[in-house]
């Protein structure tokens, strides 16, 4: 994967994977990790041709689950004695003065580990194990040659285990352009995959005699091994990326599967996810059917995943799914479009996916139920009432006011996107209520809120990255994010100032815009 590739792994999977990895911790204390900051980072990177840097934020170390340090320090204490020494360092990326370094290295979350080689020329994400022993063996391999030589069947069976991707080049000689290109490709991808080379294909698992040069990729799924013979470096990289994606990605609590789940989410394809209880009698029938369907849709822009209900709580919450809908398929497109088929049977998977592909399935929208009564000062909006609400006035109807024959749609809306667990939102709630009460006499001003975790927000206009987010729609239909202070006074003033009422609109003489509306 290149440094610039966009990561699309959804947050529910990040938390899930993290909880699995955290459950494998033991506490240790040691102090072999080098502390770096903006003043000495560059020197340290220049001095060590191979250095691993953990970018962390201290607030992730308290209370929450992000507890890498003990394992990292234990690994560091072992690795300083390696020959050549392997240096493990850390940078507090939350420190204002260090933010430049974190930015330069593309750090987007904490903790992030980077392997930095050759004075900063080569940078790769650390993607190895998170426990001390795992870190040690992974990094030892990272400083050695990118590809290990296999000289016996025993070597091969030690290296090529049943649950990983392994790429082996078979060459008559370890020289020549093909060998060189293989080595270059291995160097490029070494942080993500394991490579080996051999002169004898018979050493390899399920080994038949082939004459090199040839590249054989072993994988723990589908056809188990694939051969490739184009030795252009780019072609090799592409082959490895493509051949290492399972036809159907399995999502359960087994951490061995998680790298494939990450690949699945990073794919540019639409993502079809079948969720069911893996302990269910029918699970095998679903698995083989989905495999069949996935094969028939290969190369058609859809990636497939099968997920165990037990591991999927986060996903269910994210999509607003319910257990009684299982087995279900949800398809998510990269632009946010979602499609749902609840209570699917093995035999209906293929036809439903085909209907989806043919544009015959209506999008699915996560929504809370429409409230039966909505008479608090702050109105409740849900996904199913969103469009209507934003386009309408207080009473759920589009209101028109005519003054001197000018017709204006004059409702002014302040809408809060909130999350139930968000402290700032809870603090804002009574303030919004007071604001709403102060405008209760003005039927054109509506203060409303929507639980953005339980309702899909139409993309495009509303950019909700944190909670609370406040949007304001003025009388002339402009929608802007409210960036001011979240105090009663500021909010009221803002609404009065930017939300011109129809009286002022007419007084200010008719603008072109109102004239256009007039004509419509
Ligand atoms: C880098 O500087 C910080 C503070 O300026 C210091 O705490 C740290 O020990 C230094 N690291 C090295 C490797 O010199
Ligand atoms: C090796 O890779 C380079 C760069 O991709 C390419 O130009 C060359 O043709 C390759 N050699 C072989 C034998 O494929
Ligand atoms: C899955 O099914 C098994 C066996 O029927 C049951 O014991 C288990 O509770 C189910 N798991 C979930 C998450 O519903
Ligand atoms: C109209 O604008 C004037 C000043 O431009 C302001 O004093 C007045 O309060 C506004 N009227 C309303 C109803 O907002």
TrEMBL record:
Cellular component aspect of the GO annotation: endoplasmic reticulum lumen
SUPFAM superfamilies on file: Thioredoxin-like
Subcellular location: Endoplasmic reticulum lumen
E.C. number: 5.3.4.1
One Pfam match: Thioredoxin_6
Signal peptide bounds: 1-30
UniProt key word Protein transport: no
InterPro entries found in the cross-reference section: Prot_disulphide_isomerase, Thioredoxin-like_sf, Thioredoxin_CS, Thioredoxin_domain
Protein's name according to its UniProt entry: protein disulfide-isomerase
Organism: Stephania cephalantha
Lineage: Eukaryota, Viridiplantae, Streptophyta, Embryophyta, Tracheophyta
């Amino acid at each position: 994967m290149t440094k610039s590739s966009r990561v699309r792994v959804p947050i529910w999977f990040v938390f899930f994977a993290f909880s699995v990895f955290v459950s494998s911790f033991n506490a240790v204390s040691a102090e072999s990790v080098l502390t770096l900051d903006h003043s000495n980072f560059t020197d340290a990177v220049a001095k060590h041709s191979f250095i691993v840097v953990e970018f962390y934020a201290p607030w992730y170390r308290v209370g929450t689950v992000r507890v890498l340090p003990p394992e990292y320090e234990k690994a560091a204490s072992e690795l300083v004695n390696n020959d050549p020494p392997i240096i493990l360092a850390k940078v507090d990326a939350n420190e204002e003065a260090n933010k430049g370094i974190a930015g330069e290295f593309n750090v987007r979350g904490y903790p992030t580990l980077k392997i930095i080689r050759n004075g900063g020329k080569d940078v790769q994400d650390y993607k190895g194990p998170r426990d001390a022993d795992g870190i040690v063996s992974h990094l030892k391999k990272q400083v050695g040659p990118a590809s290990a030589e296999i000289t016996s069947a025993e070597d091969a069976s030690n290296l090529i285990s049943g649950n990983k991707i392994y790429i082996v080049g078979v060459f008559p000689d370890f020289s020549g352009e093909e060998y060189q290109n293989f080595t270059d490709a291995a160097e490029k991808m070494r942080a993500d995959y394991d490579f080996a080379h051999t002169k004898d294909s018979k050493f390899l698992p399920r080994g038949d005699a082939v004459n090199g040069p040839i590249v054989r990729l072993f994988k723990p799924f589908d056809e188990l091994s694939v051969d490739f013979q184009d030795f252009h470096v780019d072609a090799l990289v592409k082959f490895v990326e493509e051949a290492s994606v399972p036809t159907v990605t399995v999502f359960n609590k087994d951490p061995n599967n998680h790298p494939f789940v990450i690949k699945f989410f990073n794919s540019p394809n639409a993502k079809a996810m079948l969720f069911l209880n893996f302990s269910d009698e029918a699970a095998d029938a679903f698995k083989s059917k989905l495999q069949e369907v996935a094969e028939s849709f290969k190369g058609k822009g859809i990636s497939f995943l099968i997920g165990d209900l037990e591991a999927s709580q986060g996903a269910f919450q994210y999509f607003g799914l319910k257990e009684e809908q299982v087995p279900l398929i949800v398809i998510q497109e990269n632009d946010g479009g979602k499609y749902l088929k609840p209570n699917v049977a093995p035999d209906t998977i293929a036809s439903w996916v085909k209907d989806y592909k043919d544009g015959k399935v209506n999008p699915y929208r996560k929504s809370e139920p429409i409230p039966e009564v909505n008479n608090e000062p702050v109105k409740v909006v849900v996904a199913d009432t969103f469009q209507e609400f934003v386009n309408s006035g207080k009473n759920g109807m589009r209101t028109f006011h005519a003054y001197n024959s000018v017709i204006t749609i004059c409702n002014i809306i302040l809408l809060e996107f909130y999350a139930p667990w968000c402290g700032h939102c809870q603090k804002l709630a009574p303030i919004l209520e007071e604001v709403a009460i102060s405008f209760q006499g003005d039927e054109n001003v509506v203060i409303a809120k929507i639980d953005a975790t339980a309702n899909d927000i139409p993309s495009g206009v509303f950019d909700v990255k944190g909670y609370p987010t406040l949007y304001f729609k003025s009388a002339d239909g402009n929608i802007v994010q409210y960036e001011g202070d979240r105090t009663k006074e500021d909010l009221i003033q803002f609404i009065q100032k930017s939300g011109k009422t129809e009286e002022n609109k007419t007084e200010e003489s008719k603008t072109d815009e109102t004239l256009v509306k007039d004509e419509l």
